[in-house]
Amino acid sequence: MNEEELIREIVALRKTLREKKDTLRRLQRDKHVVQECGLTNEEIGRYSRQILVPEIGVKGQLKLKKSSVLIVGAGGLGCPAALYLVGAGIGHIGIIDYDEVEINNLHRQLLHSEESIRVSKVVSATAALTRLNSSVNITPYKMQLDSSNALGIVKQYDVILDATDNVATRYLLNDACVLTGKPLVSGSALKFEGQLTVYNYRGPCYRCVFPTPPPPETVTNCGDGGVLGAAVGTIGVLQALEAMKIILEMSGVLAGRLLLFDGTETLFRNVKLRPKNQNCLICGDNSTIDKLIDYEEFCRAKANDKNPGLKLLKESERLSVKEYHKFADSSATSHVLIDVRSHEEFEICKLPNSINVPFTQISKPNGHALVEQVIRSMRNGDTRIDVIVICRRGNDSQKAVKILKGLINDEAVNIRDVIGGIHAWAKNVDPTFPIY
Amino acid sequence: MTSGYKDLSITVEFRGGAELLFEKKKNELNLPGDEEWTLRRLLFWIRDNLLKDRPELFLLGDTVRPGILVLVNDEDWELLGQGEYKLKPRDTVLFISTLHGG
Ligand SMILES: [Zn+2]
After folding, report:
1. Least enclosed by CB within 10 Å: which of A195, A203, A274, A417?
2. Record: contact B102-A273, CB cut-off 8 A
């Protein structure tokens, strides 16, 4: 039996197993005994350890059962948040995500597993959550949340979790929550750090605190900056906690305050935010925004965390990976290969004879001096020399070429970049090269 | 010194990625007591003395760029009069860049 046949057979067997389990569950549910308090014997056993907590009790458990929570993003925040909400017995959970599971998600998005690679995240998450607690009603939405669909979905839920990874969706969700009157539990994380607060709940909304979106060049995503599973997971778990406190109508909800978590020092810091702004464009007394707008335009950034392909250079300033491969092999002229990725990325993999000058260093005196020194050492007097710049995907390399051309004023130095960077090299030249 | 101000010892911290623009996350500063220190004056002092490069990633006009929160003793500077706030000895000023990943 070959690999593909075996995979097909496993998929078919899983489907049969799922169907049989569903049938069994239905049969068992019919036999449930409901006690006078309103909970079934199964629920009493299952949730007993939290029902015993005075803040919850039977009343609280019934509130959780009757409530609904929408989780936007089935990633590093959404996975742990969903896990704890489903474990606690929230009646209805909605999960929105347009994306599929990739292998680089699995270190932090722990609802997904190796067998769900290339499967839709919401399908994978629903399957994992149903395995944990089949009595919770889970609605998966495989879609990009946008101005046309957000209000219709958001209004069906009691509490909304912002577990997204980009600025445009954060403004969209905020506005949708203000317009429908829903509390928004907002989490975010990067590297070892996390931030958490509750908007539009007896306090400011996101726009009250951040009326203007940040300049796009100041925003770092997880794919570039990196993120630790346990750090982002800490914030995701706390989002579940805040959502439950809102449902239970408890007083200590993190509204008007911002929690700052720094995992490098295990430091939790709670800071006091400004109150609701009377002049806020969406939640203020004379709000001017009464429907959702174009948030990608407002933020000048795409509503995802993927890197767009830049086009800064002319065709003559660029080499394809195949052209570079040939060019490096022919070795008729000497050339310098500058890799502008971070030191961490350079450590993962590199092309032979490449020199690492991170993009953040290129325009600084040190980085610039290093490049000039390398050029000098590779060059015989004033002869022509080729400088080739490479990065991960071919974006930073173009910016670096622009910067270097401005700094090195020498016609005999021919500076170009490699289209598609290391990724294209792995795809089209050396299939043994890693992709990250 | 003829002014009536003493030198001012404060702590300035950068977090949430804002520290990448500076040498250190935490800075113990002793500012000259030549005149009164407001938060606005501190912003420019930081730009001129602590910032490594690219001031546009920290300041926009005469305030911090969108996406940076300023907190004094863990309180939003909006509650304290923003740039007009007069710094006191042992104040902790925290600059937080907001995160968006998840
Ligand atoms: Zn507002």
Report:
1. A274
2. no
